[in-house]
Amino acid sequence: MINKKVDSVQDALQGVSSDMTLMLGGFGLCGIPENAITELVKLGVNNLTCISNNAGVDDFGLGLLLQNRQIKKMISSYVGENDEFERQMLSGELEVELTPQGTLAEKCRAAQAGFPAFYTPAGYGTEVAEGKETREFNGKMYVLEEAFKADFAFVKAWKGDAAGNLVFKGTARNFNPNMCGAAKITVAEVEELVPVGTLDPNQIHIPGIFVQRIFQGTDYEKRIEQRTVRSKN
């Protein structure tokens, strides 16, 4: 029987070192690999290139790595909720590559599928397209975007089994499925790790072939980025 289960987050992050390129799932603070990020902080690895939709907030998520100056470059789409990110970017301490959100997702999916590059109309005529090949198809201009090349991908799922099959819950699905298998090693942390054969095959979102290591996470805070409530009127 295939068994990709590791006993701890420490075992899951074996081989992570400075100067690597890491993918981290999540959208805002929803579905982020909290345990893996906490361990990255403890490991003290630096000069990291991080591929993530956003950079967390000042004191949570990837914001913790930014506080410790562990990130050299962020490849992101939306970063407006992190004041420290903004400060480091404007001061030149942090290299930033802003990428249209759909392009970011597709660059992950292309890496997952083994495609080296793809054409997209997003960003044509803007700074996003500078230095990139462009080509016309059926009267419309497209930009050639290369797939990501990452050393590790860290994702968060709701349930998983020892074979690496994953089930995501609600909007925590976001960028996580696209990042599975899009790096040399994919590490999945799950809220519930179940025996192989427990999951309904029809409900599995990502098959285990895209995952190399899986562990059960603990102490999930699941912080809400901005809580908005309706008045009592």
At the first level of CATH, the class is: Alpha Beta
Mean pLDDT: 95
Fraction of residues in β-strands: 25-35%
Shape: globular
What key attributes describe this structure?
Glutaconate Coenzyme A-transferase, single chain, 11 strands, three-stranded antiparallel beta sheet, globular, 233 residues, alpha/beta, eight-stranded mixed beta sheet
Q: How would the blueprint of this fold be written?
A:
Layout: H1 9-12, E1 21-24, H2 34-43, E2 48-51, H3 63-67, E3 71-76, H4 83-91, E4 95-98, H5 101-113, E5 117-120, E6 134-137, E7 140-146, E8 150-161, E9 166-167, H6 176-179, E10 183-194, E11 213-216
Parallel strand pairs: 1-2, 1-8, 2-3, 3-4, 8-10, 10-11
Antiparallel strand pairs: 5-7, 6-7, 8-9
Describe this structure in words.
This protein is an alpha/beta fold and 233 residues long. Helices cover 19% and strands 27% of the residues. The protein is built from 6 helices and 11 strands. Strands 1, 2, 3, 4, 8, 9, 10 and 11 form an 8-stranded mixed sheet that branches. It has a 3-stranded antiparallel sheet with strand order 5-7-6. A hairpin with a 4-residue loop joins strand 8 and strand 9. The relative contact order is 0.19.
